[in-house]
Amino acid sequence: MSEKKKKLPIPHTYAIIFSIVILAAIATYIVPAGQFDREEVDGRTVVVGDSYKEVESNPIGFFEVFMAIPEGMAAGSSIIFYIFLVGGAFGIIRATNAIEAGIHKTVVKLGKKEFLLIPITMFIFSVLGATMGMSEESIIFVPIGIAIARAIGYDAITGTAMVSLGAASGFIGGMLNPFTVGIAQGIAEVPIFSGFGFRFVVYIFILSVAIFYVMRYARKVKNDPSRSVIADLELKAKKDAEEKIKESGLPSFSTRHLFVFLIIIGGLIFNVFGVFQWGWYLTELAASFIIIGLLSGFVGGLNVNQVFDAFVDGMKLVAFGALIVGFARAILVVMENGVIIDTLVNSLAALISQLPQTVNVVGMLVVQTITNLFIPSGSGQAATTMPIMTPLSDLLGINRQVAVLAYQYGDGISNSIIPTSASLMGYLAVAGIPYERWVKFIWKLILGWFCIAVIALIVAVLIGVS
Q1: pTM of the model
Q2: Torsion over CA of 25, 26, 30 and 31, rounded to 10 degrees?
């Protein structure tokens, strides 16, 4: 068997979503049209239970399928532009090298105190993941983490995990993540960044388990390098880490960088205040992030042209996730125009209404986890699933905040293992780690995180988190 087996190509995310749009259009010819009555309660539009009724069908034609895409873009415009503008602001911040210099200064200063290196590094990246939604952006730090890890007797897996799993822990926690929690809560008509306390507690558990897991593995590798899951690759690749750090040309931490950090911290605090005290939503938050980005750029030593070049570069990086929101909304447009979305929600409710709420919410988590395999963009998944999960949670008597939590954990946890995750494949490409080796390393942690999520959702239902 000398011929190489052909691997089935993984469909492009946009191709998957467009296929779902087509399937939704076909469904309008098969699924009976129906609607619930809706009413305003405390400023939110909610579904009236037991009000479902069949109505005249409205099947979607060929040209209407393609019209749904620009209509979806228009319907999701506030979210799309929000992602672009926030991504541009973060692009300016990255261009100042403040984050890179700060992390480098911290990890190098620790020297060979490896018992502190892992938790501190992971904590720093987790904060960035929880507040800035850092995911793909942390790929540039992977070579630094690997070089430092190897210098003190660890392997590339440890160095990659310090960066990627730190950011992932914060991304899963998502207390102030504008790209996932912020968007999902907006769609669900839940106050932006509400439920902070509960999310923070779960974040502590998620991060603590990740730190323990990585430290345990690192200690095992340091004591016996042959126990590394990439032991054979380490023998070929290991070099002097300090020399690599010098060759990378990392910037030293300056006073300018300190002021950039102060602006970021002050801006995030101001955003939280605006959300809770003044009722800020996406437009106000986007404006605030633009101010944070511009101030950071000028204080960080960039000139006007460099600031706006970085702003555009930042928007380029999030273009995939931003535009996918419009494509995902096209699914909703087709189902709404075909008047079948309420029929699907009613069917789901009937299917699981006899089960306890704790089982229902775990089912939501499973659905979101499976969906993330096909729509690995957090914002895109929120735009696709939350319009369905929100009325479903109303019918099942589950708080909408819990539905957002199910989305948040289903999206965030699986990002560290699914092969369709752009950030994960980016980490592994930079680190030179085969995907199957990474799965061998991380599967137990993913299982642990999933168990924490299940427990958290059950507790959220029992205590009525809001």
Answers
A1: 0.68
A2: -40
